[in-house]
Amino acid sequence: LYDVTLRLMKLWTPIMPFTMEEVFRQFSFKGVISAQLLDYPNVEKYEENDLQTYLNFLRLKEVANKSLELLRSQNQIGSSQESKLTLTAPKSLATSLKSLPARERHRLFIVSDVTIKEGEGSLMAAEAHPAGGQKCPRCWNYFSTLHAHQEHQVCDRCLEVLKL
Questions:
Q1: pTM (two decimals)
Q2: What angle do CA 94, 95, 100 make, to 5 degrees?
Q3: For 113, phi and psi rounded to 5 degrees?
Q4: pLDDT 10s digits, 60-117
Q5: Which residues is 127 bridged to in the sheet?
Q6: What DSSP line would sit under 3-22, residue for residue?
Q7: What are phi and psi of 47, to 5 degrees?
Q8: Sheet with 125-130, edge to edge strand ranges
Q9: Contact 131/96 with Cβ under 8 angstroms?
Q10: Partners of residue 128 on adjacent β-strands
């Protein structure tokens, strides 16, 4: 948080000089008397493969959103959490997505279930279907089974959180 604040302060100083001077006063710098005298932060190198994976993820998310919109326009779902996705992605992206926990994939695509398949070459496709099952009243995702907790029926993840 400190590093993010410091970098943003340096970048925003030309745009918001008075506000950034107030932020600057909360930091201690040796020999520097003003935020105006600080150097811009250095650009760190990024991995080209990571950047390409992220760009491919964004493209796949666009494809997925189009298939969800089609279901929504046909009044089969109201929200995307009422659906499940079957995604076809290039091998490298499919491997990256499969390495994530299922809950994280659900969160990234804002759906109740995600299945990942490897496609040929750079093929990206998405099939959306209504999720079916029961809606968890806490996270609003749909599951085949819910568990009793006090007077509510909740999913596995919510049950773990509520027991804490």
A1: 0.69
A2: 95
A3: -155, 145
A4: 999 999 999 999 999 999 999 999 999 999 998 999 999 999 889 999 999 999 999 9
A5: 86
A6: HHHHHHHHHHTTTSHHHHHH
A7: -80, 125
A8: 113-118, 83-89, 125-130
A9: no
A10: 85
Residue bearing tokens 């935020």: 35
- What amino acid is encoded at 159 in this protein? L
Largest CA distance in the chain: 65
For residue 102, the one-letter residue type is: A
Judged on CB neighbours under 10 Å (0-12, 13-18, 19+), 135 is: middle
- Under DSSP, the state recorded for 146 is -
DSSP code of residue 141: -
In angstroms, the Cα distances linking 124 to 52, 61, 82, 90, 143 are: 14, 10, 22, 7, 26
Give the distance from CA 17 to its chain's centroid: 33
Helices (H), the chain: 2-12, 17-24, 48-73, 91-99, 102-109, 156-163
